[in-house]
Every structure is written in C-alpha cells, then in structure tokens.
Amino acid sequence: NNIIFEHHLDQIKGRTETMGIEELILRASKHEGMKIGEKRGSEHRTLEIVTNMINKNLSDSMIADFTGVSLKYIQKVKSDLLKNNIDN
Questions:
Q1: R_g over Cα of the chain
Q2: DSSP symbols for 21-80
Q3: What is the pLDDT of residues 8-64, one digit of tens each?
C-alpha cells in the first residue's frame, strides 16, 4: 500500500526516474524495520500495563478482559516477576 502511495506521490512531484533495485530494497527494509519497531513498542507497553495490573492485585480474569491477553501470558508475566524478585 505504501509503495502505491509513494508511486502516486512521485507522479505528483514529477519524479520520472525509475527506482533502482537498491533503493527498492532499502525502502522495503526501512518499512519492515518500522513495523518491527512498532510491534516491539506495543508489546512492551502491554507488558507494562499487565505488570501494573498484577501489582494492583487485579484478578487474572480481569486483567485478561481489560487487556485482551491470554491467561497463559499473565501467568508467564507473574512467573517472571516472581523470578526477578527472587534474583534481586
């Protein structure tokens, strides 16, 4: 979808040169990197929210309902928190 948009933008700007394979690969890599970064940011934020809810002693089912994560994910976060508290 972005490639179509960029093609139309190039037409509007009057860009007439053809994109080379290197530029195409660089653009695709940049786009993929941005998607990966967004996903990691979202996953990190979800972990923060679930951790805060656990620390507020909300039930696992409430956390799952509010966040949309699985009970298995919540149990893993709890296990990791317990392990980190023991290690520290």
A1: 22
A2: HHHHHHHHHHHHHHHHHHHHHHHHHHHHHHHHHHHTT--HHHHHHHH---HHHHHHHHHH
A3: 777 777 665 666 778 888 888 888 888 998 888 889 999 999 999 999 999 999 999
- Cβ-proximal residues to 63 (8 Å cutoff; 6+ apart), any chain: 50, 53, 54, 69, 74
Q: What is the pLDDT of residue 1?
A: 61
Block residue for tokens 């709890």: 78
What's the rounded Cα separation, in Å, for the pair 34 and 28?
10
